Amino acid sequence: MFVQRALATLIDLIVIYLPSLFLVQILAKGQGNSMLNLLAAALFILYNMICESSFSGKTLGKYFAKLKVVSQENSLSEIGQREFTKILYFLPYGGPIFLFISIICYLIKSKFLHDIVGRSEVIATV
């Protein structure tokens, strides 16, 4: 499951985050690099929220990796909590620390930090 999730994330990063970052850098010349990263991350998180609430818990990456997000209530607020937690991974100095904590959570509970906060899990689909 870890490899499938990594693949899904990689697809979403390539298709959505990198173009968003490129576009934001073009439109916001002269701004700080950290702020641009956070803006692109916010766009990426918005994409995740829209896709997971509108397309049966699937982003483009999850669709191709045959995964989907399920949560206890499947409400927009839970999806928001889950996705908002991901912004921590993009913080300039704390991001790597939160990413490390998230990986430790996965090794212990088979859930990443954002899954725990959002009371959700990612499952394989057919």
From TrEMBL:
Record keyword Membrane present: yes
TM segment ranges: 6-28, 35-55, 87-108
Top-level taxon of the source organism: Bacteria
GO CC term (a single one): membrane
Coiled-coil residue windows: none
Cell location: Membrane
Signal peptide limits: none
Keyword set, alphabetical order: Membrane, Transmembrane, Transmembrane helix
Occurrences of domain RDD (ranges): 3-117
Annotated membrane topology: Multi-pass membrane protein
Keyword rRNA-binding: no
Name assigned to this protein: Putative membrane protein
Organism: Lactococcus fujiensis JCM 16395
